[in-house]
Write a sequence for this structure.
């Protein structure tokens, strides 16, 4: 096997292993980065929902309830949970895979009733009251989704409508009924805000970035291999080939071979100088033997 071929096989093995390791590590990093990106999007959407809740509670609610024509009515639009959910329903017209829900174990509006997995999330906050946030991934028919959850605790203002049916606004009882949404206790984690964001888009971006990275690494490795091949051919292969050709001519009895011109001070140059000395010594010895035989 030729020396350059052996050298290429070694380099391909080394570069291939390096690219494989770099690819594995970069893929893990890009997936973590995509997950962090999705989580940050979820936090941003959660912040928007919180802003809508505060706006409704501080400005819209007092404005409507103070209107004399509305004093005996119950308007769902003054409920922060309702307004935040409605705003995100409009958002879903453009981004159908994004969702927001205020899931409750005992809601007034049945559309807010917690599914089994949402009830499990609420239980996590009940078991760990100090926890302010929880996120995880779950599989859905639309693909893998990351959800972010924040707890909603009962405070004194909630009891105006959610303590017992007899204390709730009659208009609310008429609209939602009296068999759910009551019996809340101050301090309980009664619900969670849930924002769900699809992982498909950022993962697709991560995959594209990974492919571009691997193509770049492969191109750099190929270019490096070509440059190293040229360097080895010029610095090692060519001088060694000249020495080999010279040795072949000498072995056939050709003593008129010119000495190799030597430049530099590396190992190849030292080998060429040693070969020249050996060649001169051999020529002298052969000529001495020829003159003695005469």
């Amino acid at each position: 096997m030729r020396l350059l071929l052996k050298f290429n096989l070694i380099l391909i093995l080394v570069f291939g292993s390096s690219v494989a390791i770099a690819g594995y590590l970069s893929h893990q990093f890009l997936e973590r980065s995509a997950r962090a990106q999705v989580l940050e999007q979820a936090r941003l959407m959660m912040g928007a929902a919180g802003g809508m809740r505060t706006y409704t509670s501080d400005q819209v609610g007092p404005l409507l309830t103070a209107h004399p024509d509305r004093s005996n009515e119950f308007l769902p639009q003054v409920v922060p949970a309702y307004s935040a959910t409605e705003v995100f329903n409009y958002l879903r017209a453009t981004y159908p895979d994004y969702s927001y829900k205020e899931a409750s174990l005992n809601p007034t509006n049945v559309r807010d009733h917690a599914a089994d997995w949402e009830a499990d999330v609420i239980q996590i906050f009940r078991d760990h009251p100090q926890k302010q946030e929880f996120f995880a991934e779950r599989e859905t028919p639309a693909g893998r989704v990351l959800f972010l959850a924040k707890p909603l605790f009962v405070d004194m203002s909630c009891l105006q409508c959610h303590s017992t049916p007899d204390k709730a606004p009659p208009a609310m009882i008429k609209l939602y009924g009296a068999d759910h949404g009551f019996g809340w206790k101050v301090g309980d984690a009664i619900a969670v805000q849930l924002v769900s964001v699809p992982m498909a888009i950022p993962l697709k971006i991560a995959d594209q970035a990974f492919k571009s990275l691997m193509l770049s690494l492969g191109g750099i490795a190929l270019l490096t291999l070509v440059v190293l091949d040229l360097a080895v051919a010029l610095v090692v292969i060519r001088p060694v080939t000249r020495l080999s050709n010279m040795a072949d001519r000498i072995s056939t009895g050709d003593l008129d071979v010119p000495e190799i011109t030597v430049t530099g001070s590396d190992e190849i140059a030292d080998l060429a100088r040693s070969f020249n000395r050996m060649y001169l010594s051999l020529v002298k010895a052969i000529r001495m033997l020829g003159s003695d035989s005469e």
Summary: Residues 231-293 form a domain with the Helicase, Ruva Protein; domain 3 fold (CATH 1.10.8.500). The helical segments are 3-65, 80-91, 116-127, 159-162, 170-176, 200-251, 267-293.
